[in-house]
Amino acid sequence: MKTAKPYPPETTGARAPGLEERLLRQLEWTVLRRLDGILQGDYRTLLRGAGIDLADLREYQLHDDVRYIDWNVTARLQTPHVRQFTEDRELSAWFLLDLSGSVDFGSSDVTKLAVSSGFVALLARVLTRHGNRVGAMLYGTRVDTVLPPRLSRQHVLNLMRLMRARPRDIAAPGAGTSLAELLNAAAATIKRRSLVLVVSDFISQPGWDDALARLAQRHEVVAVRLYDPLEMALPELGLVTVEDAETGEQLFIDTADPAFRRRYQAEAEAREAALRDALARAGCDTLELSTDDELLEAMLRFAALRRQRARLKIGARWPPHLRPGTPAGAAA
């Protein structure tokens, strides 16, 4: 039996006093307690920071940070090698939050913004409970709010308040969202290697994929992609007026036309394939969040993603014939 989605409800008008406190407490009781020991525990964690103590050397691999190349070893062995360090438990995490008009969309009672708010609030609380610092950059039509990393519960409440209270600006006609602006601003702002979570529907002007790849070369990046099922296939609703949430442009369409719905689905599938290809080329992990997802299930998928990343890191430290899971004598 499915549980109710504990996403923060949409509000209009004046903000109720203490609303963020009540919402966060609800998330802590309904979801966070069930996650204890999955994402982080007292002795082992799936969320690690960068260290300074040298632990090992290994061959350079695609998307490794070139700053960690050991040039002396590389010169001796004639093969690029990178330094690996003992990882700290504490890390700095940054949320790059796309709050443009398109995230206000939702075909049911849950919008992409509500999904984003619930996920960010819960993960930020998971991180800060164990001494990690959390920062955020908020983007509407421009990057206008930067929260430096802090680790208090009040800091998480302030982040929730900013996400919910921020007005949705209408972009200039033909402009739309420029996700590259947010990613480039993050690259200039975040100096220390961090866990960076880009929470967006990735409906943007072209060029963001190169900026994301550059960010992933220096930081550990997770693309948290928001979407709604209605964006994939158009139901038969008859004659309807649709509006671009970012530019305000309106269009009158006939959803009863089978040929139009087929073209819509074909365009959606092509856009989906291009998006996934761009995220893969950027070299970052991807977590997809739908408006019909359960928040607990989404967090468990995130935990599985981190577990897979941890296994890949461990495997990269061992020579091929000694990697965990390699049958004895496989290198013979």
What does this structure look like?
There is one protein chain. This protein is 37% helix and 20% strand. It contains 8 helices and 10 strands. Residues 11-15, 41-49 and 316-332 have low confidence and may be disordered. The strands form 3 sheets. Strands 5-4-3-6-7-10 form a 6-stranded mixed β-sheet, with helices on both faces. A two-stranded antiparallel ribbon has the order 1-2. It has 2 domains: 19-43 and 88-316, Rossmann fold; 53-86, no CATH class. The chain has helices at 19-35, 71-77, 112-128, 153-165, 179-189, 208-218, 258-282, 295-317; strands spanning 53-59, 81-86, 92-98, 133-139, 143-150, 195-200, 220-227, 239-243, 250-254, 285-290.
Condensed summary:
By secondary structure, this protein is an alpha/beta fold. 37% of the residues lie in helices and 20% in strands.
List keywords for this structure.
six-stranded mixed β-sheet; 20% strand; 2 domains; alpha/beta; 8 helices; two-stranded antiparallel sheet; Rossmann fold
